[in-house]
User: What shape does this take?
Amino acid sequence: MDSVIIARNARMLATLVPEMRSLAERHLAMCAAEGIALLVVQALRTPDEQAALYAKGRTAPGRRVTNARPGYSWHNFGRAYDVAVAEGGKVVWTGHKYARAGEIGRSLSLVWGGDFKGIRGDLGHFEYHPGLTLTQARAAAGLL
Ligand SMILES: [Zn+2]
Assistant: This one.
């Protein structure tokens, strides 16, 4: 894979909590072994970044991209990342590689956005928070 992508992915994944980062690295490596190159486009998201995203399609231009208010996304706790499939130096946003990346993610106990009900097109989203509720994560982060 392109060294620029590798460096960018490493920078992105460094923002995740350690157990999440390990899983993400395994996920990317397993996909790469099958010829699926993934670009990590988002990992940790600050509450301000989440607020800006939540505003899209509501109080700011664009289409709605998230249903999570600030402090209500696993991205806010370093437990989620988003990937895009890279093909021939370009990012593609659809295709069977997303489904395969989702299957591989599931095999690692990751929760895949493609399995979400009610949110369409979250095929690049993965999260991991076994036994942890958002309320508990919010409390631990001092957000309650
Ligand atoms: Zn996401």
